[in-house]
Amino acid sequence: MSSTANGKPETVLVTGATDGLGRATAILFVSEGYRVFAAGRDAQKRAALEQLAEEQHMHLETLELDVTSDESADRAIAEIQRRAGPVDVLVNNAGIGIAGVMEEITLADLRKQFETNFFGVVRMTQRVLPAMRQRRHGCIVNMSSIAGLVSNPLMGPYSGSKHALEAISDALRLELASFGIRVILIEPGFIPTNINRAGAELSSRYIGNAAASPYAHVYLGFLKSWQKGVANAKSTPEDCAHVILRAVQSPRPHARYTVTREAHIVKFLRWILPDRSFDRGMLKMMGLDHPTGTPPSPEAIRAQLDSMLRARPDDSSRAMHA
Question: Which strands make up the sheet holding 138-143, listed edge to edge?
């Protein structure tokens, strides 16, 4: 899909576009000649993005949008249609991450997780599809994750929302094929972004009380594993944005695009290994296997966890975007 159609720029709506992957995607698409609406909830972040656009002479338009609200979604789509006409490309990027073991996660937090990452995608997609169908033209890009294929301890809520997103994207791709509308999944591994702080706040009741949990050793293994992942992270939001652009511009895009070297490795291992072998590797990576010797006592584990959380209060947040 080129940046122009019928002599005018293609209209792109990016949700969750005031930070991280969404922000990088919005800026890149503007630089390629698309008319971009960068949508988000935070007025301060929208203002900062508008200021950046002005300083760099980019024609980037921002919108207030809460993907969990029908009224907000209706207003945003109506405003885009008033200014530019129908949406040609929808990038469903808005998302949150809540980390906690499944026994302890509240149903309210689980619903919150799905309301943004799953129902928010459905809400926005349903609002742009009628015009896309009528014109037999359009592209839906859904921001999934390698966590949509592989579930780690503590990531059940987040992975569950991304697994669900993968499923509906597969259904949509087939349902919309005869209308000329393409549906694309983007599956990043860990990419450091500011969504991490929001994830830490949403997960604070679980991470903060981890030392007193019967799952303290699981929290500890998870945090140690992710600290290593953070230290080795090489990919940037701009790297992911270029993958999205390539997918949108491809005349025959893949159904899925995996981003980051680590995500490619995990996806390959998940494909070739039986469940038992894959689980064994995951447990070993997080120090949860204890095949030989005596595992540390609960008291020792909790002491390590307390020390880690005091020394690195933001580390738990960095697990939110894979």
Answer: 60-64, 35-40, 11-14, 89-92, 138-143, 181-188, 256-259
Domain range enclosing 15 = 4-201+234-261
pLDDT digits 0-9 by tens, 116-175 = 999 999 999 999 999 999 999 999 999 999 999 999 999 999 999 999 999 999 999 999
Residues 217, 215: Cα–Cα separation, whole Å: 5
What CATH number is associated with residue 184? Answer: 3.40.50.720
| DSSP per-residue codes, 189-204 | -----THHHHHHHHHH
- Structural contact between residues 309 and 8, judged by C-beta atoms closer than 8 angstroms: no
Catalytic residues: 158
For residue 305, tell me if it sits in a domain: no
Write out pLDDT tens, residues 82-121: 999 999 999 999 999 999 999 999 999 999 999 999 999 9
